[in-house]
Predict the structure.
Amino acid sequence: MRVDLHVHTNASDGQYTPSEVVALARAFDLIAITDHDTTDGVAEARAAAAHHGAPLILPGIEISTAEDRGDVHMLGYFVRVDDAGFQDALRGFREARFRRGQMMVEKLARLGVHLEWARVEQIAAGAVGRPHIARAMVEAGYVESVREAFDRYISNDGPAYVARKRLTPEESVDLIHRAGGVAVFAHPALAAGWRDLLKGLVAVGLDGVEVNHPSNDERTRLELRALAAQHSLIMTGGSDFHGPAVKPGNGLGCMAPPEGAVFALRERARRYGDPDV
Ligand code: AMP
Ligand code: ZN
Ligand code: FE
Ligand code: FE
C-alpha cells in the first residue's frame, strides 16, 4: 500500500489545488487531505480521484491549537465534512486566521516589509496562513525563501508574529470526536513539553500519535513508539506535504505510516460514528 496520511492543498497553505495533488498521487492507494482548519479541499480531491480511479481520499483536518508551546496541531481522520457544528467551528477559526493575517501584514509594514493584503488573499485562496504571507514576501523580493521569511519575521517568536485565540489541544480532541473523527497528535516533537501534553491528551481520549513525520528524529520516533504502546495509541505517519514552494523537504509520500495504520484509524472511527468511507 502506498499511503500518505498528512497532505495539504491550497484550501489551506498547500501550493497545489486538490486536483493537482490527486494528479501527483495517482500511483498512491490512499491519501488523507488534512488542511489547516478547513475540509474544503476534500470534495474536489474526491471528484478528481473518481476521475483518475485513484487514490482513495480519506477526509481529514489539522486543527491549530494553543500556540504558547510551539505548533500544537491535532489531526482528525474520518471527520464528517457535512457536520454543521464542525463546519461552524472551522469557519470561526478561518475568520480569526483572516484577521490575524491582516494584523501580521500591518506589523510587517512597520518593519519595512510592504505587502499588498489583496495579494496575500489571492495567494491564500482558502484558509489564510503564515506560509501565504511568506510567499508574498518571497514574491516581493524581501526574502529568498519561505524559510527565511519564518526565520527573520514570522516564526512563533518572530517580530511580525501575531497570536490568535485558539482551542486548547484537549478541546480540539473533543471537537474532532464530535465530528465523528479520530484524533491524532501531529508532529509532537514541534511542541515544547510534548511528553506532558501527550499524557494530558491521553486522559481526554486522544486516539493516536503521528510517529513518522519529517520533524521527528529517530530518537523521538523510538520514544513515541514506546509511548503509543504504553497508552494504546494508534501510530500514524505522513509527509506533511505542502508542495516544494512551501516545504521543499516534505515530498509527497516521503513518510509512510506504520503497517496497519489506516485500518486501525477506520476501526477507531466507528467509536465516534459511522465512517462513510
Ligand atoms: P499558521 O497556521 O498560519 O500559524 O502557519 C503555520 C504553518 O506554517 C505550519 O503548519 C507550517 O505549514 C508552516 N511553518 C511553520 N514554521 C515554518 C517554518 N519555519 N518554515 C516553513 N514553514 C513553516
Ligand atoms: Zn501548513
Ligand atoms: Fe502541522
Ligand atoms: Fe500539516
Summary: Residues 8, 13, 36, 129, 131, 242 surround zinc ion (ligand 2) (CB under 6 Å).
